Amino acid sequence: MARLGIFIVAIYIVIALLTPFLVHLEILPDANLGIENPIYSSPSMDHWCGTDRLGRDVCIRTLEGSGVALQVVLLAVSLAVVIGVPLGMISGYLGGVVDRALVLVMDTLYTLPVLLLSVVLAFLLGRGIPNAAAALCFVYVPQYFRVVRNQTAQVKAELYVEAAQSFGAGPFWILRKYLFKNVITSVPVLITLNAADAVLVLGSLGFLGLGLPESVPEWGADLNLALSALPTGIWWTALFPGLAMFVLVLGLSFIGEGLEVWLNRQ
User: What is the Cα–Cα distance from 82 to 54, expressed in whole angstroms?
Assistant: First the structure.
């Protein structure tokens, strides 16, 4: 399962890397430029996935959307890990007032629905790739915090940690030497599952018009544009962006499930 997921995600990464290069060399058309007659055209040899109501090639926009989705998700999940993991370790190790304050804040954020919180943050921060990544980041920080904090509190009670403390080892040395390698094992699974969820949340923000600028090819925004055309039988403008989003989420989920199975066998 993990191998299949890695293969799927690798295809998206290759597409994300090659598409801007091919557009720059004018081998592929610009995703934001329409044809002379901006009317829907069905899939054909000239436009494999058809064109939207602005005459833009759906195939090219879908391909470029891969790079945008991976860029936002990678940035958001990386920031969530960088913030959530250290906070969880500090909270679980120190305890006391610091732990109670951090737990209160993180539990409050965790109880809010993911989409609702991301919508509010995206509205406050505005459009743009960094802003969308920041909105998604704050949504996932509490998950890393809770997992790492609980594991840190368990490992802290082990005898070898108490022995290190009795010999005068400082908190930073103990966190780096003993706790980090023990609590970090569950983070890779959470990363892949959060990445899969982030693709859907980003698409939802784009569908609601709160994600990225209109000039940026994004699957959720394209689905919103295609919604009004579906009743008239124009299916291709919704099918290909939706299918691209579904397959990427499937690949990331496969990696997460496969990693979980593999780690449980160790």
Answer: 41
CA 49 vs CA 38, 239, 245, 264: distances in Å: 15, 9, 15, 42
What is the distance, to the nearest Å, from the Cα of residue 35 to the centroid of all Cα atoms in its chain? 33
Half-sphere exposure of 129 (CA within 13 A, CB side): 14
pLDDT tens column, 187-212: 888 999 999 999 999 999 999 888 88
Whether residue 66 contacts residue 16, with contact meaning beta carbons closer than 8 Å, is answered with: yes
Flag whether the pTM goes above 0.85.
yes
3-state secondary structure 191-217: HHHHHHHHHHHHHHHHHCCCCCCCCCC
Half-sphere exposure of 48 (CA within 13 A, CB side): 8
Residue extents of the structural domains in the chain: 2-29+54-265
Other CB atoms within 10 A of residue 188 CB: 16
Do residues 50 and 58 touch, judged by C-beta distance below 8 A? yes
Residue 11 CA to residue 27 CA, distance in Å, equals 19
Fold category of 2-29+54-265 in CATH: MetI-like fold (1.10.3720)
